[in-house]
């Protein structure tokens, strides 16, 4: 006995039937295909890792958590890794300013709250002042540590202040540790100590 579905129900059934995957010849768009492939690769990787890690999937989860904790602790202690691995460069760079000019710039940066820039300029003032006093020979590429060691031999009484200034400079410029008002004050005090200390010899 024939079944009369009517035009609308028949059209709906045809649409549902044609929507089935076996009738679809259209390939997925490239982005969807790439995402599906990536998801399958990640799933395979996690499955393989969970198979060889102690404790299976839970063991893998514990390992991932431990790695994340270690990375966070290292970043908090030493700052961004990309910056801590940088090789310290010269303090003065291409500048030919005098120590007084560097001090003026340091004071301007500090007054404006640009503490990192103030630390840079104050260390440059210290190095330039040592050169102007002929305690250091002018040399491009001299690092803060170099200046502290060489200047400390000529000014033993200020050696500790020089080492502290060099360490804070490296922490700020290369270690990713932002400077603050206390850091700027320490740098200023080191500069004052170097200026007030009499030399015992030429480095």
From TrEMBL:
Keywords for this protein: Membrane, Transmembrane, Transmembrane helix
- In what residue span(s) does the Protein-glutamine gamma-glutamyltransferase-like C-terminal domain sit? 122-192
Where are the membrane-spanning stretches? 55-74
The record ties this protein, via InterPro entries, to: TgpA-like_C (IPR025403)
Spell out the protein name for this chain.
DUF4129 domain-containing protein
Taxonomy of origin reads: Bacteria, Bacillati, Actinomycetota, Actinomycetes, Pseudonocardiales
């Amino acid at each position: 006995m024939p079944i009369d579905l009517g035009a609308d129900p028949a059209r709906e059934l045809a649409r549902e039937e044609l929507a089935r995957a076996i009738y679809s010849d259209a390939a997925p768009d490239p982005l969807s295909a790439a995402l599906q492939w990536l998801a399958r690769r990640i799933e395979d990787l996690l499955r393989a890792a969970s198979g060889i890690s102690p404790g299976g999937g839970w063991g893998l989860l514990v390992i991932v958590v431990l790695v994340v904790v270690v990375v966070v602790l290292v970043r908090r202690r030493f700052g961004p890794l990309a910056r801590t691995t940088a090789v310290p460069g010269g303090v003065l760079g291409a500048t030919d300013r005098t120590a007084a000019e560097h001090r003026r710039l340091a004071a301007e940066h500090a007054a404006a709250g640009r503490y990192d820039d103030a630390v840079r300029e104050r260390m440059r003032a210290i190095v330039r002042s040592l050169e102007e006093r002929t305690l250091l020979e002018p040399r491009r590429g001299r690092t803060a540590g170099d200046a502290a060691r060489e200047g400390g031999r000529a000014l033993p009484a200020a050696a500790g202040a020089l080492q502290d200034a060099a360490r804070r400079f490296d922490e700020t410029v290369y270690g990713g540790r932002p400077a603050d008002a206390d850091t700027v004050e320490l740098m200023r005090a080191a500069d004052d100590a170097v200026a007030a200390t009499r030399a015992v010899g030429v480095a």
